[in-house]
Amino acid sequence: MVPAAGQGKRMGGQGNKLLLELAGTPILVFTLKTLELCPLIKEIIIPAARADILTIKKLVAKYSLNKVTAVVEGGAERQESVYRALQSLSTEVDSVIVHDGARPLLTLDNLNRFVEETADFEAAVMAVPLKDTVKKVDAQGRVVETPPREQLRAIQTPQIFNRNLLEKVHKLAFEQQYLATDDASLFEWQGLPVRVVEGSYENIKVTTPEDMLWAESILCRRREVPQM
Ligand code: CTP
Ligand code: MG
Question: What is the ipTM of this complex?
Answer without folding.
Answer: 0.99
